[in-house]
Amino acid sequence: MGSSYIPVDDYDYLFKVVLLGDSGVGKTNLLSRVARNEFSHKSKPTIGVAFTCRSIQVDDEVAKAQIWDTSGVERYRGITSAYYRGTCGVLLVYDVTRHETFENVTKYWLKEVRDHADSSIVIMLVGNKADLSHLRDVTTEDAKAFAAEKENIYFMETSALESTNVVNAFTELVTKICHNRIVRPK
Ligand code: GDP
User: Fold this and answer.
1) ipTM score assigned to the predicted complex
2) DSSP H helical segments within the chain, as ranges?
3) Ligand 1: which atom is nearest the Cα of residue 72?
4) CA of 56 to the centre of ligand 1 (A)
5) Exposure string over 28-65, b if 16+ CB within 10 A, otherwise e
6) What pLDDT, in 10s, does the model give residues 126-156?
7) The pTM is what?
8) Is residue 24 lining ligand 1, measured as CB closer than 6 Å?
9) What is the CA(136)–ligand 1 centre distance, in A?
């Protein structure tokens, strides 16, 4: 068992994953790391919704995920239900140096997902900017405990800047989706 990145365009599964979380937590940079292994120090909100694809090997099958980023739309919150349509997984991101972004996961984003998405959806809670340890405002233990008491929520800390755990978080989410058979092979 296990999964690894393979740059192919032939696949057994195709499904949609969305990035959610407050503005500035690092969603755009997590996406560009997963897709192109790039990072940008400038925050440049994209207007509208961007998506990109990445294929990975899960066991002996190839899963291709279409990853959607709200890119600024989240500022207005209340993302339309069209955005969630057909979504199998969520990368739900907060910034470990800003406690309010974690509170918004618990107070706002999870409710929004539950209201709009299918109940079988798999969520990877991502504590990003883990490289900024001197500025840490959310403990690993608190986030881990929060995820552990919920069904279908997993947890990982990442650094898009240092490229730590970014692909792991995405790969684990995709693997859980495939193992749960939320999607059927094409
Ligand atoms: P978004 O609004 O959620 O899409 O966030 P962005 O990806 O635009 O990132 C917001 C800011 O945080 C930018 O200045 C990034 O350079 C910075 N940033 C993103 N990820 C990290 C990270 O892992 N570590 C550090 N130190 N900065 C990051």
Assistant:
1) 0.99
2) 27-36, 81-84, 99-104, 110-116, 140-148, 166-179
3) 2
4) 24
5) bbbbbbbbeeebeeeeeeeeeebbeebbbbbeeebbbb
6) 999 999 999 999 999 999 999 999 989 999 9
7) 0.88
8) yes
9) 15
